[in-house]
Amino acid sequence: MKFAVFGAGGVGGYLGARLADVGHEVHLIARGEHLDALRSSGLRVESVAGDTTVDCPATDDPADIGHCDYVLFCVKSYDTREAAADLDPLLGADTAVVSFQNGVDNEAWLADEIGDEHVAGGVAYIFSTIKEPGVVEHTGGPARFVFGELDGERTARIEALDEALSAAEGIEAVLAEDVRVELWRKFCLICAQAGMTATTRLPLGEIRETEASWEMYRRLMGEVSAVARAEGVDLPESVVDEWSEFVQGLDSEMYSSLHYDLTHGKRLELDALHGSVVRHAATVDVDVPMNEAVHAILRPWADRTVE
């Protein structure tokens, strides 16, 4: 099958390389020095699940690629609307654009631009980043990718994607019964991990060991889950306890991509994380004081780095 990876960074680059390894036609969309390196030396993945190097066509112009069976959409959330406007050359009648991004708004933003019929949802559980131009480093996480049609239908195209991802080495593919539940489930964890590591500038271990900070971590998750249920998402009441138990087993030195971006002067995904929680909460009349606090603390920093 023919894939375009829109945003061939840590997540997109990993997916693209694994799919290319099993024989699919993969086109990478990137920019800057990373694009230059992809064109000159190919894409190298350094992974705890096994290294690989692939030579895939790379471009910054979707018109170079043409219609695809799937577009794996992996740009930062603040680039979603701009990138969505460039998708048209990639779209055939049944092309699925599968978002593997942080947040719960990206699918709606995509649908606004290209129509509901092209959009599918996805969740990535993987720790991977661009180590240097042309090199993606996968340091941990299950490399678990959960995805599905937004209406829950088991379409031929989503089942074919499941088969393709399941056949790729180093990928745990999960076809979700209700991908909206999975999007909000991960959103609970992201908002807590990102919010606490970014505001304290400290790693997970110190947050876990500090009673007040750990309580805030759990309250951040609880607020997000309450908003989800108020919006009609069938998120289980147990989600906070489940994630809390999971987080106890994570590396004590773990931070978050939000912390990395904050401490490296990069643009923040705050609007897609805690800003989104605050917006959604207002529409369903749910109180989210912990998420409001994180948003207020980081808002000046986010405004500093808007490009």
From TrEMBL:
> In which organism is this protein found?
Haloplanus aerogenes
Q: Which Gene3D superfamilies match?
A: N-(1-d-carboxylethyl)-l-norvaline Dehydrogenase, domain 2, NAD(P)-binding Rossmann-like Domain
Catalyses which reaction?
(R)-pantoate + NADP(+) = 2-dehydropantoate + NADPH + H(+); (R)-pantoate + NAD(+) = 2-dehydropantoate + NADH + H(+)
Residues forming the Ketopantoate reductase C-terminal domain are 178-299
Task: List each copy of the Ketopantoate reductase N-terminal domain by range.
Answer: 4-151
Q: Which residue ranges does UniProt annotate as crossing the membrane? A: none
Is Transmembrane helix set as a keyword in this record? no
* Recorded metabolic or biological pathway in which this protein acts: Cofactor biosynthesis; coenzyme A biosynthesis
Q: What is its EC number?
A: 1.1.1.169
What cellular component GO annotations does this protein have? cytoplasm
Q: Which InterPro entries match?
A: 6-PGluconate_DH-like_C_sf (IPR008927), 6PGD_dom2 (IPR013328), ApbA (IPR003710), KPA_reductase (IPR013752), KPR-Related (IPR051402), KPR_N (IPR013332), NAD(P)-bd_dom_sf (IPR036291)
Q: Which residues form a coiled coil?
A: none
Specify the enzyme's EC class, one word. oxidoreductase
Its Gene Ontology biological processes? Answer: coenzyme A biosynthetic process; pantothenate biosynthetic process
Please report the name of this protein according to its UniProt entry.
2-dehydropantoate 2-reductase
What is the protein's known function? Answer: Catalyzes the NAD(P)H-dependent reduction of ketopantoate into pantoic acid. Catalyzes the NADPH-dependent reduction of ketopantoate into pantoic acid.
Record-stated family: Belongs to the ketopantoate reductase family.
Molecular functions per Gene Ontology = 2-dehydropantoate 2-reductase activity
Keywords (A to Z) from UniProt:
Coenzyme A biosynthesis, NADP, Oxidoreductase
